[in-house]
């Protein structure tokens, strides 16, 4: 039962690559957003907070539709990217990664903020009195101390990206080898008469990957908890 | 050379209006009860609090015009605030690497603080006392223009305090960096401070050399159980036959004075010429008008009453006695003051046992 077909392997490989790209796109933005949200008196903080959390509560298909509106060939950003850089996101693996990044963004931000809130502002003050300016303080104190959150955010984002369905199929469509990630392949297999065995194989792989992701996250948070305890 | 601080700041439920000037270098202690605004002063001086109005001038440099990271004020926080992700060595280097070359030698400082064996450890594995010593070292190695300490011993138990105080005393004697020290423990102030700034409810109620302020009858310090004179002194001679040491007061900022009062204390194991401080508790000082014939008190010291004040409530009277350049303080009952007709300008004898004198 475990002999995977060429297409099934392709779906697994594509999923892993799309999830990695999603984290690469989403994580830096999530770090910046977390820092902005930490700044209590920032104008528009509540609005930013709501926007960040929208993908968590909206139907994924709505997020996919919104991506189409903005990044589609006729969308403002999509048109600009296409005309100036020749980049097309719709129906491409890059588009699938973007959809995953947007969907998993709230998870990454929440993980990072959790560890950012545990960073004692007093340590940054202390760094200031020792002659470190704002940028210096960020890279030598804040960032190292929030690293556990950044890494666990990356693990969460990666694991969740592997399972993203609605936004991907809406925005990037279901093209084998291009945008057909694991959940989409499972969906396609179930639509095909006699595809139950293929669906079961792929589902099992999904479960294994998800469990591995959660275990990695758990192990890491224990390790970093021990290391940074002060 | 001096440190001048002016601060005005209004919190919702508290306002501070503070102004003082202290000689630098030297240890200036801000002393007062909790909530009197001492820490507010430190935060404003180090730039961590944006005060409504603040002006800090050290040797002509207006530090308050600079952002905190360019003031070069080394701060030792109550809780240490060591970086948990850096080793002790890297904590110590943090300020050093960002500072211009300065007079403070890293190796000497590490040795002085006794932290050489901790360099490879991480803050999480240090004891409270070790952590505070590393924090002091980290602040010093940033070659600060001014070292600021916010109750560095407050979070420690008595044993750890006793462990660190000698290091601080050594620092005071070997350091040319001025120090601003916040405390509400008289013991630390008596031992370390050169200048005392007495605070209450956001105001400065007294400021001057520690010997002067500690013995002032009109300040609330004089009312406490731990009231007493603080006198810098040096060992004049040992009287081995009597197992006593003769101390000579070295006066305030004026330095050694040949007129300095002499005190007898139990034998001290230090060579003549050594400098130290003594504290003479006000409740142990007895006043007499004539020299008693045979008395166990070793110290019978002629002086002149400088001021007499009756404490509110009428249960206690405070008498300041000038002895050479030094000041003694005596707590008496108002009845004794009346019986002896003690008033300003009257010559008296101050009597106290040699074992009542605390050598700091």
From TrEMBL, chain A:
Residues 12-215 form the ABC transmembrane type-1 domain. Keywords: Cell inner membrane, Cell membrane, Membrane, Molybdenum, Transmembrane, Transmembrane helix, Transport. Gene3D superfamilies: MetI-like. The keyword Chloroplast does not apply. It is found in: Cell inner membrane; Cell membrane. It is a multi-pass membrane protein. The chain crosses the membrane at residues 12-37, 49-73, 85-109, 138-160, 198-220. Belongs to the binding-protein-dependent transport system permease family. CysTW subfamily. NCBIfam families: modB_ABC, PRK09421.1. Part of the binding-protein-dependent transport system for molybdenum; probably responsible for the translocation of the substrate across the membrane. This is Molybdenum transport system permease. The lineage of its organism: Bacteria, Pseudomonadati, Pseudomonadota, Alphaproteobacteria, Hyphomicrobiales.
TrEMBL record, chain B:
The keyword Coiled coil does not apply. Belongs to the ABC transporter superfamily. GO terms for molecular function: ATP binding. Residues 294-360 form the Mop domain. It comes from Pseudochelatococcus lubricantis. SUPFAM superfamilies: MOP-like, P-loop containing nucleoside triphosphate hydrolases. Residues 1-226 form the ABC transporter domain. The keyword Protease does not apply. InterPro entries: AAA+_ATPase (IPR003593), ABC_transporter-like_ATP-bd (IPR003439), ABC_transporter-like_CS (IPR017871), Mo/tungstate-bd_C_term_dom (IPR008995), ModC_ABC_ATP-bd (IPR011868), Molybdenum_import_ModC (IPR050334), Mop_domain (IPR004606), P-loop_NTPase (IPR027417). Keywords: ATP-binding, Cell inner membrane, Cell membrane, Membrane, Molybdenum, Nucleotide-binding, Translocase, Transport. It comes from the Bacteria. NCBIfam families: modC_ABC. This is Molybdate transport system ATP-binding protein.
């Amino acid at each position: 039962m475990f002999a995977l077909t060429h297409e099934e392997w392709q779906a697994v490989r594509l999923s892993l690559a799309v999830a990695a790209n999603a984290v690469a796109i989403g994580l830096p933005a999530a770090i910046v957003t977390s820092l902005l949200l930490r700044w209590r008196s920032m104008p528009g903080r509540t609005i930013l907070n709501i926007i960040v959390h929208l993908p968590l509560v909206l139907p994924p298909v709505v997020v996919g539709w919104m991506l189409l509106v903005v990044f589609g060939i006729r969308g403002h950003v999509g048109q600009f990217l296409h005309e100036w850089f020749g980049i097309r996101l719709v129906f491409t693996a890059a588009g699938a990664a973007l959809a995953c990044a947007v969907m998993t963004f709230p998870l990454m931000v929440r993980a990072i903020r959790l560890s950012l809130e545990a960073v004692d502002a007093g340590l940054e003050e202390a760094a200031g009195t020792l002659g470190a300016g704002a940028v210096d303080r960020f890279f030598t104190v804040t960032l190292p101390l929030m690293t556990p959150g950044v890494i666990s955010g990356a693990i969460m984002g990666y694991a969740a990206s592997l399972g993203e369905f609605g936004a991907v199929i809406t925005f990037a469509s279901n093209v084998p080898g291009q945008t057909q990630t694991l959940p989409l392949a499972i969906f396609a297999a179930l639509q095909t008469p006699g595809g139950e065995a293929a669906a079961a194989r792929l589902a099992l792989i999904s479960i294994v990957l998800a469990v591995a992701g959660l275990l990695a996250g758990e192990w890491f948070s224990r390790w970093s908890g021990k290391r940074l305890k002060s | 050379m001096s440190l001048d601080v002016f601060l005005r700041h209004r919190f919702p439920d508290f306002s501070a209006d503070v102004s003082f000037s202290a000689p630098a270098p030297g240890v200036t202690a801000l002393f007062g009860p909790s909530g009197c605004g001492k820490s507010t002063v430190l935060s404003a001086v180090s730039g961590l609090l944006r005060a409504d109005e603040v002006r800090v001038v050290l040797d002509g440099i207006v530090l308050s015009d600079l952002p905190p990271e360019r003031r070069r004020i080394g701060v030792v926080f109550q809780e240490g605030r060591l970086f948990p992700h850096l080793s002790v060595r890297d904590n110590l280097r943090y300020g050093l690497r960002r500072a211009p070359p300065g007079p403070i030698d890293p190796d000497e400082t590490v040795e002085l603080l006794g932290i050489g064996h901790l360099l490879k450890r991480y803050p999480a594995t240090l004891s409270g006392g070790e952590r505070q010593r590393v924090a002091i070292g980290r602040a010093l190695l940033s070659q600060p223009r001014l070292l600021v300490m916010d109750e560095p011993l407050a979070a420690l138990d008595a044993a750890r305090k006793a462990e660190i105080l000698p290091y601080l005393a050594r620092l005071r004697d070997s350091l040319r960096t001025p120090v601003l020290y916040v405390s509400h423990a008289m013991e630390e102030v008596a031992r370390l401070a050169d200048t005392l700034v007495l605070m209450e409810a956001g105001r400065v109620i007294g400021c001057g050399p520690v010997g002067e302020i500690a013995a002032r009858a009109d300040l609330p310090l004089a009312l406490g159980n731990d009231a007493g004179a603080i006198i810098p002194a040096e060992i004049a001679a040992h009287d081995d036959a009597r197992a006593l040491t003769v101390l000579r007061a070295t006066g305030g900022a004026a330095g050694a004075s040949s007129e300095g009062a002499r005190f007898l204390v139990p034998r001290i194991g230090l060579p003549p010429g050594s400098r130290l401080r003594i504290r003479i508790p006000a409740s142990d000082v007895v006043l007499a008008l004539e020299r008693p014939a045979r008395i166990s008190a070793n110290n019978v010291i002629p002086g002149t009453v400088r001021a007499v004040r009756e404490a509110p409530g009428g249960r206690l009277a405070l008498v300041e006695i000038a002895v050479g350049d030094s000041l003694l303080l005596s707590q008496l009952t108002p009845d004794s003051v009346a019986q002896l007709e003690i008033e300003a300008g009257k010559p008296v004898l101050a009597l106290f046992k040699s074992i009542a004198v605390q050598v700091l």
